[in-house]
Amino acid sequence: QWVYVNGEFVEKENAKVSVYDHGFLYGDGVFEGIRVYDGNVYRLDEHLQRLYESAQSIMLNIPHTKEELTDIIVETLKRNSLRDAYIRLVISRGKGDLGLDPFKCKKQGVIIIAEKLAIFPKELYETGLEIITVASRRNRPDVLSPKVKSLNYLNNILVRIEASLAGVSEALMLNDQGYVAEGSADNVFIVKNNVIKTPPGYLGALEGITRNAIIEIAAEQGYDVREEPFTRHDVYVADEVFLTGTAAEVIAVVKVDGRTIGDGSPGPHTAKILQYFRKSVVKEGVK
Ligand code: PLP
């Protein structure tokens, strides 16, 4: 397996960065997770747009144009003979000294890893997920915006720790006002009486590329789709709940904080949306 590290392709075992890289020392950098379906990079423009906006927000220079990054991504896929893959694109602040000062880091790090995706076990899509809500809160958007997909995922890691300790594989974070924000690595949707709701970006969630695709697909299918705040109560009494993300795609949630959702199995709306999503992904990609 070949990994792109700062201008060259190296074998996975030799893909290394400096211990002085501020991405490692401080989580100072940004990243994207991108899917490749049958040789098509899914919604690459949107991922690159989000990457450049994340970088702009934290004053991080990306030492490539979008076209250059696209070429490197395509080359990485070719070198690894991958047609279905998960791509991790990382821009780190680069090597500095032990101080925080990012302006001492003169050369930003660029890393691209492409791998076969270890998709969630198929049975999880058939049975649905059990999740909980946790004490960890999404960081406030007025400080560091959750729209910045930064390398500092401690918030999300704390959520995963709480989830694991409770014996479940994912959890929902609330924002500082108690509204539902998102999962540790995915966005959340609820369905009630044919109305589909997902929290608006301003509540404090990453604006997921999959989330945006699902909003479009559901609207095309005639659903009333709303970006509207909701609380845990609304989740508990929903007909269906599902999560969306690049890795997870669309996955049903059947239990939240011990409350059974609907009849306790993945519902027809979630199944329909997943079906249309899977149909759309190949069509839409960039060859
Ligand atoms: N929310 C968080 C915190 C994430 O890390 C991710 C994954 O990237 C998502 C939501 C889903 O976003 P996307 O659909 O762009 O993968």
Question: Which features would summarize this protein structure in a list?
Answer:
single chain, 287 residues, alpha+beta, D-amino Acid Aminotransferase, Chain A, domain 1, D-amino Acid Aminotransferase, Chain A, domain 2, nine-stranded mixed sheet, six-stranded antiparallel sheet, 29% strand, globular, binds pyridoxal-5'-phosphate, aminotransferase, branched-chain amino acid biosynthesis, L-leucine-2-oxoglutarate transaminase activity
How many domains? The number is 2
The CATH superfamily title of the largest domain: D-amino Acid Aminotransferase, subunit A, domain 2
Q: What is the count of DSSP helices, taking H or I runs of 4+ residues?
A: 8
Large-scale geometry? globular
Report the uncertain regions: none
Structure report:
It catalyses: L-leucine + 2-oxoglutarate = 4-methyl-2-oxopentanoate + L-glutamate; L-valine + 2-oxoglutarate = 3-methyl-2-oxobutanoate + L-glutamate; L-isoleucine + 2-oxoglutarate = (S)-3-methyl-2-oxopentanoate + L-glutamate. Keywords: Amino-acid biosynthesis, Aminotransferase, Branched-chain amino acid biosynthesis, Pyridoxal phosphate, Transferase. GO terms for molecular function: L-isoleucine-2-oxoglutarate transaminase activity; L-leucine-2-oxoglutarate transaminase activity; L-valine-2-oxoglutarate transaminase activity. This is Branched-chain-amino-acid aminotransferase. The protein is α+β, with helices and mostly antiparallel strands and 287 residues long. It folds into two domains: 2-115, Aminotransferase class 4, branched-chain amino acid transferase, N-terminal domain (D-amino Acid Aminotransferase, Chain A, domain 1), CATH 3.30.470.10; 122-282, D-amino Acid Aminotransferase, subunit A, domain 2 (D-amino Acid Aminotransferase, Chain A, domain 2), CATH 3.20.10.10. Helix content is 30%, strand content 29%. The strands form two sheets. Strands 7, 8, 9, 10, 11, 12, 13, 14 and 15 form a nine-stranded mixed sheet that branches. The mean pLDDT is 95. Residues 33, 156, 182, 185-187, 206, 208-211, 244-246 line the site of pyridoxal-5'-phosphate (PLP).
